[in-house]
Amino acid sequence: MGQIFTDVLTQFADQNRNPRLTPIIGRASAPVCVAVHGRRGVGRATVSAALSRAGVAVTTDGAEAEVAVRVIAEACKPEDEVAELPTVIILNKADLMGFGAGGPLALAQRQAAAVAASTKTPTVPMVGLLAIAELDDELMAAVRTLVVEPADLTSTDAFAESAHSLPAAVRRRLLHTLDRFGIAHAVLAVERGADLVTVRALLRRLSRVEEALMHVEAVAAPVRYRRMRATIAELHCLAIRSGDQELAGFLAADDTVLAVMGAAVEVVEADGVYVDRGDDPGAHRRRAVHWRRYGDGPVAALHRSCSADICRGSLRLLGRCR
């Protein structure tokens, strides 16, 4: 929703040919910078690469970071302290969690829930290697060979060194790209008739990178909201100093108010607070009343500001219905 606000502002600036808004829009639309931390051996570089490929603005400058990702493996260690920034914990190497009810990913999900409960920090399991896997024609041909000529996958050494028609170099490349978990799932998929595109999609789904991205997006909601609020304050000052009535009108327009409401909803929902998304007059009225009362309660300043924006947007929607 913060992106919706910058889109609306950009459209307004283009229509009114107002160059004074260009630097403001640049600051408002800048990506949220994410720092990736983790102990040696947990796959921090792999997770960082996976997030970068998915469009996350990963930074190596701690001073620029606005959100933190803490990469762990198996369990939290004493040195895995959570940063003061909004943080997501990624339990990487979920495919190596061992075997239990439901398999390694289910076991990793249960472990992630335990970590989240103990750290009070959103935690998601991930197979970083599969998130960056580049399955090409040669490797796909190797997988097809393994369908008709199974290999020993009981260990990495057994797979790489046992006698097999696949050259050892190709088998090592498969291990480097997919590891045993990915190889096994790719073989099963091809056995069921999957093509290269389908196998790539399967591997990405197994990596759980999309869930990790959703968590990063959620914890970044307050960052985007505060940035948007700062932009609005700057625009109000500019409108007053310049006497720009069109800019003042933009700030009071329905599209602007509703974009701000949407960003506020993202913040409170990310904190687990339910927001009624009904789109009828009764829902708009109930939502306005509820969030007016919510803001008067014992809540932090961020939620108080969000409640005011949700109430204001709900009243604007109610007015449209009339």
Briefly say what this structure is.
The chain is an alpha/beta fold and 322 residues long.
Strand order of the largest sheet: 2-1-3-4-5
Name the helix and strand elements from N-terminus to C-terminus, one letter apiece. HHEHEEEHEHHHHHHHHHHH
Helix content: 55-70%
Spans where pLDDT lies below 50 across 5 or more residues: none
Spatial gap, N to C terminus:
25 Å
Total beta-strand segments = 5
**Strand residues, percent:** 5-15%
How many distinct domains?
3
Which key terms come to mind for this protein?
322 residues; alpha/beta; Rossmann fold; 3 domains; five-stranded parallel beta sheet; 63% helix
Describe this structure in words.
With 322 residues, the protein is of the alpha/beta class. The protein folds into three domains: 2-28 and 220-321, no CATH class; 31-130 and 208-219, Rossmann fold (3-Layer(aba) Sandwich); 132-207, no CATH class. The protein is 63% helix and 7% strand. It has a five-stranded parallel β-sheet with strand order 2-1-3-4-5. α4 (104-119) links the parallel β4 (87-92) and β5. α1 packs antiparallel against α2, α8 (168-191) crosses α9 (196-207) and α11 (221-242) packs antiparallel against α12 (245-252). The longest helix has 24 residues, at 168-191. It is elongated. The two termini are 25 Å apart.
